[in-house]
Amino acid sequence: MKEIIVDNEIKLIPYYPNEKITLEWYQDLDVCKQVDNVDYPYSIEKLNKMYHYLNTHGELYYIEYQGVLVGDITLKDNGEICIVICKEYQNRHIGRKCIVKMIEIAKEKGLEKVFAEIYPFNTQSIKTFEAIGFVKIDDETYEFIL
């Protein structure tokens, strides 16, 4: 995998271990709730296990915004898109632009659709994915036909 330019402010950087920065994102209880529906922060072990799984089941990237790592995004082999933006960088359309780039990559790979699993209370993510054109197909699944 190589670095991917999203726009003049956003790059996708191939995954490499970086616990010092990434663990901070998963210490925010709101982010943990949005991602995993849990009310406790990640441990280093849980973080490493998650990243190992994502990195071996898809293409995992860090999201770099204006030179700062602000989140991660994965296009899993099954077409699922998983994304996290740390709280202080949410609501800037960073995630939206990165999801659109993942859709382009999925098309290049020949996938027929992509999808996201989103908890019903995570209205922020729901709005983001629906604004791109994802359609709700069940309680927690949103799909985009390529």
What's a concise summary of this model?
Helices cover 37% and strands 28% of the residues. With 146 residues, the chain is α+β, with helices and mostly antiparallel strands.
C-alpha Rg, in Å?
A: 14 Å
**Which architecture name does CATH use?**
3-Layer(aba) Sandwich
Shape: globular
Number of domains: 1
Multimer state: single chain
Strand content: 25-35%
The first-level CATH class name: Alpha Beta
Q: Classify the helix fraction into a percent range.
A: 25-40%
Spans of at least 5 consecutive residues with low confidence = none
Going by CATH, what is the homologous superfamily? Gcn5-related N-acetyltransferase (GNAT)
Written account of the structure:
This protein is α+β, with helices and mostly antiparallel strands and 146 residues long. It has a single domain, classed as Gcn5-related N-acetyltransferase (GNAT) (Aminopeptidase), CATH 3.40.630. It has helices spanning 19-25, 29-36, 44-56, 94-109, 123-132; strands at residues 4-5, 10-14, 58-65, 68-76, 81-85, 113-117, 135-136, 141-145. The protein has a five-stranded antiparallel β-sheet with strand order 1-2-3-4-5, sandwiched between helices. A three-stranded antiparallel β-sheet has the order 6-8-7. Helix 4 (94-109) crosses helix 5 (123-132). The two termini are 22 Å apart. The mean pLDDT is 96.
